[in-house]
Design a protein that fits this description.
The chain is of the alpha/beta class. The protein folds into 3 domains: 127 residues, Fumarate Reductase Iron-sulfur Protein, Chain B, domain 2 (Orthogonal Bundle), CATH 1.10.1060.10; 157 residues, 3-Layer(bba) Sandwich (FAD/NAD(P)-binding domain); 117 residues, 2-Layer Sandwich (Alpha-Beta Plaits), CATH 3.30.70.20. 32% of the residues lie in helices and 10% in strands. The strands form 5 sheets. The chain has a 5-stranded mixed sheet with strand order 2-1-5-3-4, with helices on both faces. A 5-stranded parallel sheet has the order 8-7-6-9-12, with helices on both faces. A hairpin with a 6-residue loop joins strand 15 and strand 16. The longest helix has 19 residues. The protein is globular and about 75 Å long.
Length: 554
């Protein structure tokens, strides 16, 4: 059979195949956002450009037929620079947040809009699971969190901020009232153990996520009871001990062992823990240098000396975080620090490169006008019992006299959310490639398009501001035999894909709506009520391809 060579790999091809098709036949990935097998090539995104026979011309591989003996470069500086520029241009006109502003400013980066949608739909258990992906003790935080997330809420520019913390508290209290509150399913034990020094919020958070992964965890603390400052520094009226005990009991039910009344450095040494455990996490709060050094790690000005990204100390297998490192005493920061530590410890024990929490690319709209806020309000979706904005205008619930939401109040409050997040943020080619090629949203600047009213059908959700005009949905509708289908409107930067002649999306996509939404490379067209969330976004990428763009490092 005839052959082509792509980046040094010989690939046989069949008569009539394009370069893209030949590459796909052996799972060699060439980036693309507008190509789908079985449909005509669009030649619109220009991400699949390659260089042929060293002649310097860049051509789209999705439409160029193979020729025997072709030598193709898909991973070189010239090609990757072109892809990065293409992404920068797309992002300059991209009106959409990957992560909602409330979740972005939350130290734990909790999926707040997703929780609110689930509460609004009466899915309280799913809402709790959403919360606990990032905040393991929502009953505690729902009472003492300083509401940092609410400072990012765009609803506040219209009337009042969403009462995020109180909805989170409602979800937790509903679960804690059960005889058997929810705990995550624990996988088969991994056969490795971790010692955690300190039973405050940082240590407890780290323990939760390590237990969830299948590790054995033993927690040491000098106090008689677990909880650290949550128990010994916060008044009962702010944080009832019954709530604290119920949430910390989650760790016991997950399999954690507690060694209370044990002071590390006095009663037991770091070398003893190193002998008995595979890793150690120090979360003992603020200590003087001599106390930290007594534990066995280097200290400077009252803090362990650590790698700030990975939380590693100078001692192999020993990590430190929480109040020992961070400046403030806020529990939400402590919990976030504990989860970050669990990621580094898991990477260490799994033999992977220790990189800590993965920070993903995040498209941002920025500040929006009051008119745009009104447009978003008009487009509130997915609630049969629609919340009327004026009904609660100017009201802000106070934690001090708050007795808890009723089911109806929780749904109403949740329905106020503007849903600034992207439902497809963990299933978005634009985001993945922007991260991969280090794209810059503000490289090309100018006046952005206004936020469009979100239009919905019975099956899909349309957010025109996120559309890159790849044309896949237009082609899929045509190939699927839609009577009306979709069409391009206007020219140049004002181009938009619409249902033509005044028809709506329901009329335009009667049989291909789901297929078109699945093919969409961004969150412009997504399946109604379908959420995409992952705890490990890097798994979404093709590992083979991730290893290949070495030329990017140049």
């Amino acid at each position: 059979m005839p052959k082509i060579t792509i980046d040094g790999f010989d690939i046989e091809f069949e008569d009539g195949q394009t370069i893209m098709q030949a590459a796909n036949s052996v799972d060699y990935e060439i980036p693309s956002m507008c190509y789908k097998e079985g449909h005509a090539a669009q030649n619109s995104c220009m991400m699949c450009v390659v260089k042929i026979n060293g002649n310097g011309r860049l051509i789209p591989s999705c439409s160029r037929p193979c020729e025997d003996g072709m030598v193709i470069e898909s991973n070189c500086i010239e090609v990757n620079d072109m892809r990065k520029t293409t992404l920068d241009l797309m992002l300059s006109d991209h009106v959409g947040d990957c992560v909602a502003p409330c979740a972005h400013v939350c130290p734990a980066h909790m999926e707040i809009p997703q929780m609110l949608r689930q509460v609004m739909e009466g899915e309280n258990l799913q809402a709790l699971i959403t919360v606990k992906r990032d905040i393991p003790f929502p009953g505690i935080l729902g009472r003492i969190c300083p509401e940092i997330c609410e400072g990012g809420c765009r609803r506040g520019t219209y009337d009042t901020f969403e009462s995020i913390c109180l909805v989170k508290r409602y979800v937790a209290d509903e679960d804690l009232a059960k005889d058997e509150p929810w705990i995550p399913e624990i996988p088969e034990k991994l056969g490795k153990s971790i010692a955690i020094i300190g039973s405050g919020p940082t240590g407890m958070s780290c323990a939760y996520y390590l237990l969830e992964l299948g590790y054995d965890v033993t927690i040491y603390d000098a106090n008689e009871k677990a909880g650290g400052n949550l128990r010994y520094a916060i008044p009962e009226e702010e944080l009832p001990r019954s709530v604290l005990d119920k949430e910390l009991n989650t760790l016991v039910r997950m399999g954690a062992a507690f060694k209370m009344g044990v002071r590390i450095g006095d009663d037991i040494g770091l070398d003893d823990l190193q002998r008995d455990f595979d890793a150690i996490f120090i979360a003992a709060g603020k200590l003087p240098d001599e106390e930290i050094q007594k534990i066995g790690v280097n200290a400077k000005r009252g803090k362990p000396v650590i790698n700030k990204k990975t939380m590693e100390t100078n001692v192999k297998g020993v990590f430190a975080g929480g109040g020992m490192i961070i400046q403030n005493d806020l529990a939400i920061w402590a919990l976030a620090s504990g989860k970050d530590a669990s990621m580094s410890i898991d990477q260490y024990l799994s033999g992977k490169e220790i990189i800590g929490r993965t920070i993903r690319f995040n498209s941002k709209i920025g500040k929006i006008s009051k008119e745009e806020t009104t447009n978003l309000l008009e487009a509130q979706v997915n609630t049969k019992d629609r919340y009327e904005p004026d009904a609660n205008q100017g009201t802000k619930f106070s934690k001090s006299d708050f007795k808890g939401f009723t089911d109806k109040e929780a749904k109403d409050e949740s329905a106020r959310c503007l849903h600034c997040d992207c439902r497809a943020k963990d299933n978005c080619d634009l985001r993945d490639f922007s991260e991969m090629f280090d794209a810059k949203q503000k490289r090309f600047t100018g006046k952005r398009r206004p936020i469009a009213i979100l239009k919905e059908s019975d099956r899909v959700h349309l957010d025109a501001g996120k559309c890159i005009q790849c044309g896949l949905c237009v082609q899929i509708a045509e190939d699927g035999g839609e009577e009306i289908g979709l069409a391009y409107e206007n020219r140049g930067f004002n181009t938009a894909i619409v249902a033509p002649l005044g028809f709506n999306i329901n009329d335009a996509l009667t049989i291909t709506a789901i297929e078109a939404a699945k093919a969409c490379p961004t969150g412009a067209l997504s399946i109604l009520n379908e959420e995409h969330t992952t705890d490990n976004p890097i798994d979404l990428f093709n590992e083979q391809f991730l290893k290949k763009p070495a030329a990017l490092e140049s």
